[in-house]
Each structure stands twice: as structure tokens, then as C-alpha cells.
Amino acid sequence: MSKYYGNHSKSGRSLREKIGFYTAFSICLIAVCMAVYSTYRTVTGKSGSGSAKTVTVNQPVTGVHATPPAPTLGLAEIKTDPVTIPTATSEPDTLPAVTTRPATTAASTSATVSDDALETMLSAEISLTKPTKTGIISRPYSKSPTYFKTINSWKPHTGADFSAELGDDVYAMLGGEVTKIYDDDMLGKTVEISVNNTVICYSGMGAVTVKKGDSVSRDDKIGTVGTVPFEAADENHIHVAVKIGGAFADPLSFMGNNE
After folding, report:
1. What is the rounded average pLDDT for all residues in the chain?
2. Which of 187, 201, 192, 190 shows the shortest CA–CA distance to 231?
3. Are 175 and 222 in contact (CB under 8 A)?
4. Which of 89, 108, 119, 172 counts the most CB atoms within 10 A of its CB?
5. What are the start-end ranges of the H helices in the chain?
6. Helical H segments across 45-169, by residue range
7. Is 160 helix (H, G, I), strand (E, B) or coil?
8. What average pLDDT score do residues 107-126 get?
9. % of the chain beyond a pLDDT of 90
10. Both ends of the chain: CA-CA distance in Å?
């Protein structure tokens, strides 16, 4: 009897274990089926009462609530703008030198000054006489910048100034042909007399008594003293410039030459 009871007890326990196992297995299977079904409904968009509507993944969805798909860019389509990094500028270690001279004002009397002109004129044995009655020099020729009060400027003085009163006579320093007569904003009325490659320019004239094409001799009267605009703050004078081969030379170097 004891043996039978023992076997029966084991058999009953084994049956309960099997029932419990299958029950648990069924519950798990049902849960898995529900999860699969729920996933399927989410993907397919199937509603409880309507018909199924299939939505293809990665295809644009149209409709009122549809969100446009984000554009897809390949590596070749991605562009980046270059970034410019500003270069830092540093202040100079030293400040430029400060000059006490007034600012230079541009003038129509800019010219080339050459020592070759002196050599050329001396070799030609040319002698100049004084252009005014007294022949007094108020400002000499200078290749170095000098200050001009009227125009508040420093510049070379490419001629020589001879003191005279307004209306005094002006004489030809060298014979030749009158090649130009003109008005200049800086120099005033100017008469040019040329011989060979030498040109004598008389600026600041008042009345002119010769005309273009006239031949004049040394010491002939060519006009009267007027005003030199860019030297108007100076005393009255006539401004004489000498050009040889287009280069300015010192008129005083040739006055009384070979006398």
C-alpha cells in the first residue's frame, strides 16, 4: 500500500508539473502573438473597423497631416562654404618721421633739373644778360625744395627771380625766335624765346610787345613786368627759367659768361 501511494504521489506531481509548463508556455505564446499582431498593425496602419492601407517605408506620404521627407544628400552633394580667418594686423613698432614742412601743393611748374644743361650751355659759349634794368636777384635758382608762402608749399625753384616794379621793362637775355606766348595759372603770362636747343622763359609778364614768330636780339624789349601768381606774396619781380634740351638749368650760371 505504501508503495502504491508513493508511486501515485509521484505520478500526480508529474502531471501537475506538465500542466503548469504547458500553461506557462501557452501564456508566453499568446503574448508573443499579441506583440507580433500589434507590430503588424503599427506597420500596416490597419484600423479596427476600416480596411487595411499599406504604407511603403521610405516612400513620401501625401495628405493633410503628411510630413515631407527630409532630403537625402550624397557625399558629392554636400557643399561647405570656405571660412576666411582674418589676418591680424600689427601696429608698426616705430612711428614715421614727422616733417615740419607744409604739405606740398601740386603746381604746373614741375620740371626736370639737370646738371648736364649747365655743361651743354657752357660748351656752347652762351652768355645771358640781365632781363631788368637793375638785375637784382630776389630769389635764386635752387634744385632743393624752398618754401613758397603764396601756395604754402615746398618745391624746387626752377628759375631765378629778378626784382622790378610793376610796369618796368623786360629785356631779352638772349637773341632768338619767339616760339610761345601763353597764360599759365601758376606762372602768369609767359613768353618763350628759343635758339637751337636753348629756351628762355620769361614768366609774370604784364604787357607783351612781341608776337609768336618774331626774331629778337639780345637786350631787345619784349614787354613789361606783371605778376607771378604762385609767387604773388613776394615782392614784384620777373621769373626767368632756362631750359636746355628740356632740362632746367640755373640762369645765373650763364650771366656774363665769356665777357
Report:
1. 74
2. 187
3. no
4. 172
5. 2-44, 116-123
6. 116-123
7. strand
8. 49
9. 45
10. 176
Report the SS3 class of residue 122.
Answer: helix
Q: Give residues with Cβ within 8 angstroms of 247, minimum separation 6.
A: 112, 113, 114, 116, 117
Give me the CATH code for the 116-254 domain, please: 2.70.70.10
Residue whose cell numbers read 501557452: 26
How confident is the model over 224-250, as pLDDT tens digits? 999 999 898 999 999 999 999 999 999
Select the more confidently predicted residue: 128 or 74. Answer: 128
- What is the residue extent of each domain of the chain? 1-38, 116-254
Quickly tell me which residue has 613758397 as its cell. Answer: 148
**Any idea which residue has 645765373 for its cell?**
252
Which residues are CB-contacts of 246 (< 8 A; sequence separation ≥ 6)? Answer: 112
* Three cell numbers, residue 86: 582674418
The phi, psi pair for 199, rounded to 5°, reads: -125, 130
- Please check the confidence at residue 110 and state whether its pLDDT lies above 80: no
Residue 130 CB burial class (10 angstroms; 0-12, 13-18, ≥19) = middle
Output DSSP code: residue 113: B
